[in-house]
Design brief:
Blueprint: H1 2-42, H2 46-61, H3 70-90, H4 95-106, H5 110-126
Helix pairs in contact: 1-3, 2-3, 3-4
Length: 127
């Protein structure tokens, strides 16, 4: 009995470590993408941003489109987050809202995206 309890604790710690390292890896990727896109995205027009935003939603929500890779997914979310820097610069009174929106987009998680796609696939296959 005690041995099983010890195994459960070790497995839980191992899974926790995997999850933590995944978050750290994702954060490094997001930071890298942010720095590589920053200069380009800050110069986007609102038309460019709208195109990016609608393309993101199409890619994420359309089940007929392939599942995005982690880099593809974060490229969209980080570009959208980065555009909020431009928005904050253009509209100083809206800076707080822009920073909040930036953080929300920056915090999006690839594993959550995969879960949503999986749930949608199950719903589609049941119909």
């Amino acid at each position: 009995m005690r041995k099983n309890y010890l195994y459960q604790i070790l497995i839980t710690l191992f899974l926790f470590q995997i999850g933590f390292s995944q978050e750290k890896e994702d954060q490094i990727l997001k930071d890298s993408l942010y720095h590589s896109f920053k200069n380009k995205v800050v110069n986007y027009s609102f038309k460019d941003f709208d195109q990016l935003f609608f393309e993101y939603h199409k890619m994420v929500n359309d089940d007929t489109i392939k599942i995005l890779t982690k880099i593809e997914y974060y490229s969209y979310t980080i570009k959208i987050a980065t555009f909020n820097d431009r928005y904050a610069a253009l509209y100083p009174k809206e800076k707080e809202i822009a920073l909040k929106n930036k953080q929300e987009w920056y915090d999006k998680n690839y594993s959550n995206y995969l879960l949503v796609r999986q749930k949608n696939a199950i719903k589609t296959s049941v119909k």
